[in-house]
UniProtKB/TrEMBL annotation:
Pfam families: SBP_bac_5. Residues 1-32 form the signal peptide. The keyword Magnesium does not apply. Residues 90-448 form the Solute-binding protein family domain. GO terms for cellular component: ATP-binding cassette (ABC) transporter complex; periplasmic space. The lineage of its organism: Bacteria, Bacillati, Actinomycetota, Actinomycetes, Actinomycetales. This is Glutathione-binding protein gsiB. GO terms for molecular function: peptide transmembrane transporter activity. GO terms for biological process: peptide transport. It comes from Actinomyces howellii.
Amino acid sequence: MDTSTPLTAATALSRRHVLALLGVGAAAGALAACSDSTSAGSSGADGRIRLAMLQPPRSGLNPLSDDAFKLSRWSTAETLVNLDAEGNAVEGLATSWTRVDDRTWRLTLRQGVTFHDGTELTAERVAACLTFAAGYSTPPRILDGVELTAAAEGADVLVTTGAADPLVPQRLSSPQLAILAAGAYPADGAADGPVDPVGHGTGPFVLKVANGTASATLERYEGYWGDKAAATGIDVTYVPDGTARGAALRTGEAELVEAVPVSQAATIDAALLHEVPMPRTATLYLNTAKGPFADPAVRAAARNALDPAALVETMYEGYADVAAGLLGPALPWAAQERSWGDEVLAGADGAAAAGKVPGAVTDGSVPAGTTITLGTYTDRPELAEMAVVIVQQLEAAGLTVKTDVREYSLIEADALAGSFDAFLLSRATVLDSGDPVAYMVSDFSSAGSFSLSFLADPAVDEALAAAGALEPGPERRAAIMSAEALVLASGAAVPLLHERVLQGEAAGLSGAERDPRERALITSATVVKG
């Protein structure tokens, strides 16, 4: 995949101008930091892969936390079910599943699987893992609001939910529900006890050493049930500094690098960078409950004033996709199901296209003297940069814009309380189940828990409820896109761009996964050739 947009002099100057306005300077000493933090691993010449990761573990690699995604990307912990590119459930440690009734599913397990400690995968062990996760003091995010029980029945596992749930197989694909050996869990069964993944997974690589927030070491598992790993092992180093990650790839300190910053792209051979579309959309949420944007015509005027293409070129230097809706290229079916096509929904060139969304208000004006407050956060620096340009675009339409930019932890409560007329957010549109309904319900239903636009539209509520009740497949996808059209027609949210991430791969590396969901990275097929 090589769809990168060349960085032009005009683009670079534009971005530098914005950074100057924000007082942002270049990082110093990055190369030295890189050398210090990535030199622990051995070279790829011995068949090992040196991996520089963006973030260190936050919970000691507890597989019931977000750290589970690291275990998944290292192919050391596996789940009962996997997802294909379309989000369909495919076999993992379970080879098949059937729906017994509205609330119960039967899963047939793969035979001949052993854990890294030599013990066998059994129905009893799987049921115990799921039971522990469901009863954990802080249950995995995928089980929020879900009452789940599991029991062994012969060689099969029965999974039961408190209410009918068509997404049970997709839920079981979450890395936070990985199946581990009994030795990983606290001996006393304490619901808040530590869960240790070291040496307890089933994947093609054994996690041997977890060195806190510094590094991790994995070795090939010779007893793996599937294809043996081509690489002999993985040496992981956590390199939070983006400039240092870029230098690690450029200088050969790492064969595989997560999230190379856009700012580093011009310093690295383009052949080593691969763009991965992410299920994440930068969206401007407009407060529909009070203030100027309670008027649909003012919302339409703001939407028409925005130019996402300019944001993509200046803030992301071409490494993003202009939004065609809430859901982007990371969900390949979204564009296929979107009845109004792939036209841009916002910006000077997209104003007419927005009218193709059923019921959309296409024209609007701003009353003289209208002032709004725009909020965003500093945790994602590109949002603060974008806000500068968005303010200019909105003010050109006649709005007076005040900004409030803080750390996310300090601004979230105010955003949820409706303190802003507009809020700029980078939002994950596909959560752990691989399905966007949960995100859409959270953000745009009347009872949504993350409703920054405070939309209360019965038609949207009905559409989301209808989509959520359907089995995964074409009908559900069509219903999701119908709900998306209603949200966009309301003007409650203006999707601006879909993010991409730059994955760095050395010239000798092959077989690395480029996964929008960030579940897979190194697999049995990943190899470094000298």
